[in-house]
Amino acid sequence: MAEKLTEEERQALLPPLGEAGWGADPETDSIRKIWKFRNFSEAWAFMNRAALLAEKRNHHPDWRNVFNVVDVRLTTHDCGGLSKLDTDMAVVLDKYAGSAEVQRDQAQEIVCLCETYHKK
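That's the Putative pterin-4-alpha-carbinolamine dehydratase sequence above. Prediction below.
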């Protein structure tokens, strides 16, 4: 069973993830990132790779997908908070996302490309 990150581990692991666009949510003891891909196919390809990783590691993200946007939240339910499983998965997901745009302001409304096209 995974164990929650210690304070020392959090101080070492979370700042670099924050610089990469991962936001910490103290209320749910999770990290979250929102990617905007160029189109639905790129978002779907990312999710496929992430799903295979999740199955291999038996560690599954909470996520939401709307057209070209993928919103991922990582936490370890077994231990009730952030674990090394989450931070390790975040690093790999960043590699899978490639040059996708990152929505750093997580309080901002998520707007996908289909909504952008519709407004024109």
